[in-house]
Design goal:
The radius of gyration is 15 Å and the shape is globular. It is an alpha+beta fold. Helix content is 18%, strand content 21%. It binds iron/sulfur cluster (2 copies).
Length: 144
């Protein structure tokens, strides 16, 4: 989660993004998923960057970490934040409820379905608490 204009880490840099500060929940702040954190501003990024909770400190979306994901996968361009659980065995696509179908645009849907078809790989797409597990057929899931 970004500081104003500063990269959190490696392959890519957050730049003007900040979408995780809307789409990800932050337990310590009782911030729900899908609502802008009140510490965030588009002009200044995180107002409490040095004191931000651990949830924010440890979070890096997959676009940030993955050199192979080009600018088209930047969350503000794609309309979703991609992250993982279970050592990467579960990929999660957190969609912006304002743009819930953006993941269906290409090349996203084809790529996500290809990943979902790989052995041992699960891909869940959420918009709020509802989601789908990509497969043949897709299965409805709820966030727990
Ligand atoms: S969604 Fe990713 S690129 Fe955007 S601010 Fe968060 S960690 Fe950075
Ligand atoms: S505390 Fe800062 S880094 Fe964490 S969600 Fe809020 S604005 Fe983003």
């Amino acid at each position: 989660m970004r500081e104003d204009g500063a990269p959190n880490l490696p392959a890519n840099s957050c730049g003007d993004c900040g979408l995780c500060c809307k789409l990800m929940g932050v337990t310590a702040l009782q911030k729900p998923t899908g609502k802008w954190c009140r510490r965030f501003s588009k002009a200044g990024g995180c107002a409490i960057y040095d004191e931000r909770p651990d949830d924010c400190r440890v979070f890096n979306c997959l676009w940030l970490l993955t050199e192979a994901l080009d600018e088209g996968w930047k969350p503000t361009t794609a309309g979703f934040v991609l992250h993982s659980e279970r050592d990467g065995a579960r990929l999660i696509v957190e969609c912006d409820a304002a743009r819930p179908h953006d993941w269906r645009r290409e090349p996203y849907e084809t790529t996500l379905r290809r990943w979902a078809a790989a052995p041992g790989q699960e891909v869940l797409v959420f918009a709020g608490s509802r989601g789908v597990r990509l497969g043949d057929p897709d299965a409805l899931v709820r966030r727990v």
